[in-house]
Design a protein that fits this description.
This protein is an all-beta fold. It has no helices and 10 strands. The strands form 3 sheets. Strands 3-4-5-6 form a 4-stranded antiparallel β-sheet, with no helix packed on it. Strands 7-8-9-10 form a 4-stranded antiparallel β-sheet, with no helix packed on it.
Length: 113
């Protein structure tokens, strides 16, 4: 991740999120008013990784979950409230996930076409 500094008029890297073993196809930042923020990334390696941070500077992130799929994960998108993650995959499915109070991510519904 990079952040723009108006003082220096340049971009500085503030964090690197690693873990995927192939191309990252999409990245989505959750819109939230909560103290914790989330980033999801969809990859050619057939997974979506979810990172969370409570750090206002955005420098400290931890991986919250890794969601595995039978096909390539093409896109990921958060609901407007930031509590539901939609993932589209190469098998023409959209899967909806929500974080439980235990911290685990639960599959709520899969839509097939």
């Amino acid at each position: 991740m990079v952040m723009y500094s108006p003082e220096t008029k340049s971009y500085n890297r503030i964090a690197s999120l690693s873990g995927h073993t192939d191309w990252v196809r999409d990245v989505s930042w959750s819109p939230t008013i909560l103290s914790k923020t989330y980033i999801a990334s969809a990859s050619q390696d057939k997974s979506v990784r979810i990172w969370s941070s409570s750090d206002p500077s955005g420098q400290k992130w931890e991986e919250s979950a890794k969601l595995d799929f039978p096909e390539v994960a093409w896109r990921c998108s958060w609901s407007l409230s930031g509590n539901v993650l939609a993932v589209s995959t190469g098998d023409n499915r959209v899967s909806l996930y929500k974080q439980k109070l235990t911290g685990k991510w639960e599959l709520m519904k899969t839509i097939e076409e």
